[in-house]
Write a structure and sequence with these properties.
2 domains; single chain; 4-stranded mixed sheet; alpha+beta; Zincin-like; binds zinc ion; 4 strands; 11 helices
Amino acid sequence: MFWLYPTYIAPIFNQFKPLGNVELKTKIDNLLKRTGFQSDGVFVMDGSKRSSYGNAYFTGIGKNKRIVFFDTLLKGMNDDEVQAILAHELGHFHHKHIKKHMISSFTISLLGLALLGYLINQDWFFHGLGISHPSNHIALILFTLTMPVFSFFIAPVNNYLSRKHEFEADAFAAKHANADDLVSSLVKLYKDNAATLTPDYLYSAFHDSHPSASIRINQLKTYK
Ligand SMILES: [Zn+2]
């Protein structure tokens, strides 16, 4: 899928054009050189076809990695802000956050399936939930319905790690691009997404995968 997706599957749903802005392209090439990142090209996707949501991402593996910007992201940002956003994403890559996230979600899935394998043979699991005739498909349905009650308590751990990764990616961006540019791009993104700048501290600690705007911006200002 890593090989097929960028070249054959994604273009079925969206149009990808090589980045046309020469000045921005030069800045990006320099950033990639500075950070030792190899890429197969920088593309712009017509995300505006569906919504105003803006994003940037990588696809592929090895030297075949493509960098993709949504046209909606490029529209509101100046070149330095786009560079800062890309530097943040490269920070995630540099710190191997994607790999770590995959390993932890595969591990959690495996543990979940092991638990399901155990419960499927326990009469109390079915009877306790009001089912008198146990079967494999009922076990799957009961498991899917009851899991959120327990996984609810795993979410804050995941979110804590995710927020830690965001700070690491921000620090990388401040080092290889510019902290001020990342701050101004974040303010624009928060504005576009109509996100609150001052969420409740406890709510945020439990539910948020990204640090709140004020905390994140204050941290970025210390890197100057
Ligand atoms: Zn991030």
